[in-house]
Each structure stands twice: as structure tokens, then as C-alpha cells.
Give the backbone structure.
Amino acid sequence: MDLKDSTDSQESMLLEQLQALLDDETECLKSGQMAELQRIATEKMRCFADIQSCMTAASQPSKNSSADAHLRNLLNEIMRKNQLNGQIISALQRFNQGAWEFFFGAQPATYSGLGTAKSSAERHLIGSA
């Protein structure tokens, strides 16, 4: 096994580790285990740094096209899972914002014809005096 094969193997191992972290992240998001997300985020950042340093060390393209195809497939799956997790997080943020506004009566600002925010005294419900 030459240096390039060893680097490909290490890249593959790191990508598979990242994929497993994304799976764990998805499960935490689905089950509401928010405390665990911080640990996973820290592990993901460490894994990203390891992948970047590994890929920087492997500046030559691989001669093994099946290994390259495997790495590309892993990367595509990782990107898909990361985007899905991002969408779940965005939906949770919107839900939390809506709940906050519902419970605490926060109203979005209304704007004048000039585009400036109206004061609360200027915002009246329709039909109020």
C-alpha cells in the first residue's frame, strides 16, 4: 500500500465517521435531544479539520477510479444529510420564534410609507380608535 492509498483510506474513514455523526445529529434533532447536539457539532468541526488536513496532504489525484467514486458518493451523501439537518434546524427555529411571539405577544414591526418602523402608539388594530 503506497502513501496515496493510505491517504485515500484515511479520507474514506474520516468521511464515514462524518456520515455517522450526521446520522447521530439527525436522530438528536428528531428526538429532541438538544443537549447532545453541542457534542456532535464539536465532533463534526474536528472531523472537518481532519478531512481538510488529509486532503491538503493528498495533493495528487488518485489513480484508483473506484476509490474516487466511493469518496464522491460519500461526499454527496454527506452533503445531502447536512442540508437535511440544516432544514430541520431552520424549521425548529421558525417554530420556536412563532411560539415565542405567541406566548409573549411580540408583534412584528409595521412600517410607515417611508419605510421606518412605526412606534407602538402608531400601530392600531383595524377598527380601534
Summary: The mean pLDDT is 81. The chain has three helices and no strands.
